Amino acid sequence: MSENNILVFIENNNGNVNVNVNVLQVSLELISKATELAKTLNVKVCGVILGFNFHLQNEMLENIAHYGLDEIYVIDDPRLKHFTSIPYAKAISALIRKLNPNIVLFGATTTGRDIAPRIASELKCGLTADCTDLQLGEYTIKNKTYQNTLLQIRPAFGGNIMATIVSPDSSPSMATVREGVMRLNSVDPNKKAIIVNEKLSDLNVFDSDFQTEVVEIILKEKSVDLKNAKIIVAAGMGASSEGAITLIKDLARTLGGEVAGSRPVIDAGVLTKDHQVGQTGITVRPTLYIACGISGQIQHRAGMEEAKRILAINKDPNAPIFSIAHYSIVGDVMDVIPKIISAYKNKL
Ligand SMILES: Cc1cc2nc3c(=O)[nH]c(=O)nc-3n(C[C@H](O)[C@H](O)[C@H](O)COP(=O)(O)OP(=O)(O)OC[C@H]3O[C@@H](n4cnc5c(N)ncnc54)[C@H](O)[C@@H]3O)c2cc1C
Question: FRET label pair with 274: which of 100, 139, 143, 163, CA 20 to 30 Å apart?
């Protein structure tokens, strides 16, 4: 393999279930973004996947390749059945040393956030967490100009500014990105990847590195699926009373949508954390997002402004949410929501 390619960590639920391995959506989104960057850099997109029993999962590997992978590095070992930090971080660090990629991308998941800093520390390279965009551009410092360096863009200072972070002097540039932030490529069934099998021992990972034994994994069912929801009805502090939440749930049920909330609504314990939309919550792209009693601060908008259509209901005509809304209703949620429900039901 030639150097300077882009490497994506392909995260999967291997070991968590007894059925087929499922690759996390965020990994597919990262492959999609990597294909865009790779086109400009004229390099390949490679993936690394770790776990056990991938030899039974050839179809799965072929399917991920359809998103744009040129090469897949497979590290298949019974000891990798469950994720543990040290072996994963050591194996990926050794692979990066071997392949010498220019850019390495991880999902900002619990696993990604665990191993990416360990790898960055091992390789003494830069890592930017929770990027909301990745671009390539020119960067000049002390009369030295770097072409096509990775511009890692993310909110900083409480979301009040967008910072562009570069690490051109340390290779590779590494970033984590949250699920839902990057757009998915359409699948190309003709795209094929070269599969390269790697052995743990060749990557300097030995029995002594397996210091943690995972006895059992208990999966907690999510109470809401905001990622795949076409319609989301979101409650802000202006719609957080018991009566307003009942109306919001009623509207979501009527429209066949899901209920979400702004961070203060979650912090107040009105809805659980998996309902939170925004910079520190989930990023969503529904067809319709109904923002009820939400002021529209930048940290909330970061998670929902890519919705196809936004309907905002707020009693303050100057609320910032109206500047991004496609449809605006100035009024009290307690008056407006029952009218929407009744109008919708009467039209059916
Ligand atoms: C580091 C950091 C990360 C953050 N992450 C997130 C995040 O992920 N998600 C997030 O949401 N926030 C986040 N925040 C908080 C964010 O800054 C705002 O405080 C928050 O989004 C405001 O929530 P809100 O709009 O529900 O409440 P408010 O700002 O209090 O707005 C309430 C709105 O309701 C309207 N209203 C009141 N009563 C009614 C009524 N009866 N009918 C109609 N309208 C009414 C008011 O006019 C007002 O516009 C973060 C903040 C920081 C510093």
Answer: 163
